[in-house]
Amino acid sequence: MTFTPVIPFSGLQGWTFLSRSIDSQRESLINSSEVKRETEAFRQKIGSIKSAEELVGDRGLLSVTLTAFGLETDIDNVFLIKKVLEDGTLSPDALANRFSDKRYLSLSKAFGFGDFDIPRTQLSDFSDEILSAYNTRRFEAAVGDQSQDLRLALSFDREILDIVEKGGSDTAKWLEVLGNAPLKSMVERSLFLPSSFGNLPIDKQVAILKEKSNSRFGVADFDSFRDSDVRGKLRVNFLLASQITEGGGVSSASTALSLLQGNATLRF
């Protein structure tokens, strides 16, 4: 049976409901017959996989793998995934290093086919590592089937903290946000930026994100996102905007949104 999460509302109301029931709903997903079958097969077989070719040759293993990294739509791009895995990550010319989307880099690092003589599939806890990510992403995808905005809200902490933990300047980290389409959409909408924002020169976009996130959420530098309260403020703004767009609770959400916006209209 396919798992379907219970989400009776959209926007901030939906997030409030989901937050209160998330542990039990995730448990229901993990215990569903379909997910149990997929995870048990992965656990039994992954230790025998020693090459990228072997991995992409098993569609079941590949499906779990790609889902764990948010790349499930690449299930039929077998040649691409094989190349990403075989190239590894150590060479600047490796395919994963040439993508602005860093999910491919994370995938290649996790398996180590192109980086080590013995791939990480041989580690005793490797299946636990991948299946933990798989269960998380699978739940997010199920939520996304009902509300893509709630899926974004669920993944926000992980995505933004991944960037926080990386080295580099604030500007480099904001550029990573702009290179991550879902995260970019969430940040832009939380700041009420117009649709024309993406047409601005990239340095102007970064400058505006820095300025607006500081004034709206107190993001003095990118490390400010370590603070759960800061992340929460951005998420609330985003979900209120989502709630209004989807027509849920328009009156109460509009009042709160007006206060959060400070009645400001952005013009470039």
TrEMBL record:
<dbReference type="InterPro" id="IPR023157">
    <property type="entry name" value="AGR-C-984p-like_sf"/>
</dbReference>
<dbReference type="Pfam" id="PF06748">
    <property type="entry name" value="DUF1217"/>
</dbReference>
<dbReference type="InterPro" id="IPR010626">
    <property type="entry name" value="DUF1217"/>
</dbReference>
<protein>
    <recommendedName>
        <fullName>Flagellar protein</fullName>
    </recommendedName>
</protein>
